[in-house]
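To whoever picks this up:

The parser on our side crashed when reading a file containing two proteins. I've narrowed it down to the boundary between the first structure block and the second sequence. Both blocks are reproduced below exactly, byte for byte. First block:
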Amino acid sequence: EMLIKYQQHLQRQKQVMAYRMKRLAEKQVEIKKKTDAVKDKIRNKYEDMKRALDEDLRITLTHLDTEQKAAETLLEEKIEDCRSLTQELDKELLETLKLTDPNLIQLDDFKNEQLLCLTANLLLFIRSQVPVTKKLFQSAAEVVLDADTAHPKLIISPKGDLVTYTNTWQDVPDSPTRFDTTLNVVSQHGFSEGRQYWVVDVSGKTYWELGLTYPSISRKGHKEDSWLGRSKESWGLEYFNGDYTAWHSGVQHELPLLAGRQFTRIGVYCSYPGGVVCFLGADTMTPLHCFCTGTFTDTLHQALCPGHDNEGTNWNSLRICDASRSATSSV
């Protein structure tokens, strides 16, 4: 009996499940119909929108076409007006060109040639007279370097007009007049009257010193007194890596206006009776610095210092030039 009841229970459950499946199938059909209906309505709406947009596009493009045609018509009228004006301007320009033909205007070429010739002659005359300072330097004494005063690392040429630095200590006799720490050399002969001018070729060098000194300048030991211009006994001009400095009595005179300029020849002018020492760029007679001492108290000697190698940039020699020839060719 219990088995029969259980079979009946299962039969009822099976009927319920069959009914539920039927209802689900009916729901599936219903959802499909509703969805298809919504899709048809949406599709119809989009078709209506497309028709509306197509119509709006047609109207908009028609408006633009109409405005374009109106603008093109106006532009064609303006172009025609410009063409007419251009033709009129061409006629006026042709007439103007005829009236302004440069060939109708002539200069007196013969007179101009005469003026040019006269000014050329005047220029030659002026060049022969300037700079005026060169007149002071047309007579100069010969300067010969004294090898017996040269530091042992300096080589003096046989003529005494060239001094060269070398890293090698030369086998030279020591003497009271020889510099032993400073790379100096002085001239054989001094002067104690009149005016002297001399020129030194410093081309290709990055470090040098030159000037004038009394015989009493310190020559031994490590005192700076033996450097040119570091004591009252000497006057010097120093060049180092583009900078110029004038020295006297240990006082440094920086020359910033000359920074970056490089002169190939340096002139030194001294007026013994005037107590004046002047340094110049000899190529153009450019004043570099001037000392006014007032009164010299001893014989003056020319002095040179070619400087050390300066990291391999300063091997060139210092050469004493012919001062009279330098003066006459300075313009």
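<<boundary where parser fails>>
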Amino acid sequence: MNDLRAALVECARKIDDYRGRRKINEDNTKATLVEVVLRALGWDTSNADEVEREYRHASRSKPADYALILADRPQHPIAVVEAKALGTNVSDYAIVSQVLSYATDTGAPCAVITNGDEWRIYNAHAAVAGPDRFYRAVRISDSGNRPGEELLRVLLLLSKDQLRAGNVQRLWEAATYDQQVSSVLSKLFDPADPLNKGLLDTLSPLLPTLSRQALEQSVARMRATFEFSPTTPIPAKPAAPAPARATRVAAADGQT
């Protein structure tokens, strides 16, 4: 954690310096920003078996800038990273489609786009449209010399242990479900929505001293917001229990 904090402070200083003096190209962005963060996350950028540059899953496929590979799962990258020059709009649809296609080709469950400052993380294999696979984005420059907990939490999802655990996928699922639940809950408090009647029917017997009209007026004045913890992923599904091993029982006559 301390290594990551120090790396982010270093990167924030560089980003501020670059923006004040000159633009830097993609190669320099990779060398002075992107790889600094990857190393701080525990990835050995000098080991091509762990961090492979210009990774091609097949000879005719387009290369991903980086493939992050776990030693115990060498067949497919655990994540692909597409790096652009500092200042590039990394939410551009063409770039998103590009990195998600790399993830599909390579089998990587996680896709990342970065311009050295902004880091965008995607659940690459979610069964939804490309942009909806987006999970979270953070900017290093937003924290300056004091990296915030959200920046650290999100970037640590790209560490080996968290990628191996599938936390990007589970947190994306949790955020997706929370968004759906929040949408329905918000409708309960909207007088124009049919769901509002159900809320009023539920509240009426709990507040017998209030008239229906008073209850309706009170709910109409309410401005409800719902907060969900961003740090608790949906637990992994437990493995199916192994079938019981059959045992041979001795027959009554002592034969087996």
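After patching the parser it read the second block fine. Confidence is low (pLDDT under 50) at residues 238-256. The chain has two domains: 2-165, 171-221.
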